[in-house]
Amino acid sequence: MNTLIQSNSELSQHRLDNLADSLADKGYMVMPELLPSQIAESLLLEVSEYGSQHFQPAGIGREQQQQQNQFVRTDEIRWLTGQTEAQQAFLSVMEQLRLGLNRRLFMGLFDYECHFAHYGPGDFYKKHLDAFKGRTNRVLSTVLYLNPGWTTEDGGELLMYEKKQRTPFLKLTPLFGQMVIFLSERFPHEVLAANRHRYSIAGWFRINASIGGAIDPPR
Ligand SMILES: O=C(O)CCC(=O)C(=O)O
Ligand SMILES: [Fe+2]
C-alpha cells in the first residue's frame, strides 16, 4: 500500500460539511490546507523536476477546436495520470471530495481530470470561464497551489469575478498547499503574471454527459 496515501490523508466529515455549505452558500471556497503537507511537497518536487519537454503548451477549447492562443494564456501543462505515488495520493483525496460532495449536495460528480500547470515569469491566463452554461460537463473547478514562500510582491494572483462585474471580489495569492474550489459556470477568473515560477494543479469535476455510450469529452 502506498505510503503517501496512508499518510493521514482522510478528509474529515467536518471539513466536507464546511466545503459543501460554502459551495451551496457562496459557490466557492478557499481551503488553506487541503492535503497533508507531505503530499503537497512530493507534488511540488515532481512538477519542479519536469523539464519543458515534459509539458505541453496549454490550449483553449476542446478537441478539434483546441487551439493555442497566446493572447489568452501562456502557461504550460501536464495531465496527471496517477503515474507517481504523489499523484495517486492527490487523486485519492480528490476522490474523497467527489464522493463527499455528491453525498451532501447531490451534484452527480462523475469524474475528475486535472493537470499540473507551470507559469514562467510573465505568463498569464486572461479572464475566462472554465465552462459555459449547458455546453460542457465541467461543473466544479479546483486549483491547488504549490509555491512555498510566495509573497504578495511575487504577483501571480488569481482574480475571481462575479459575472458582469469589472472589479474582482477575490484576489488570491497562490500559497503553498492552498486550494480554491468554485462552480465552473459561475465565476469568470484570471491569472495575473508573476515574477517567479508558479506551479499548481488545476482540475475539474465533471458530470457524465455521455450519449450513446461515448464518454464526452475525451481529452
Ligand atoms: O492557476 C490558477 O489560479 C487558475 C488556473 C485556471 O483558471 C485554469 O487553469 O483554468
Ligand atoms: Fe480557469
Automatic annotation (TrEMBL):
Keyword entries, A-Z: Dioxygenase, Iron, Metal-binding, Oxidoreductase, Vitamin C
Domain Fe2OG dioxygenase: 105-207
Molecular function terms, GO-annotated: ferrous iron binding; L-ascorbic acid binding; peptidyl-proline dioxygenase activity
Pfam families: 2OG-FeII_Oxy_3 (PF13640)
Cofactor(s) it depends on: L-ascorbate
An individual GO BP term: cellular response to hypoxia
Listed PANTHER family: EGL NINE HOMOLOG-RELATED (PTHR12907), HIF PROLYL HYDROXYLASE, ISOFORM C (PTHR12907:SF26)
Name of the featured protein: Prolyl 4-hydroxylase subunit alpha
Lineage: Bacteria, Pseudomonadati, Pseudomonadota, Gammaproteobacteria, Alteromonadales
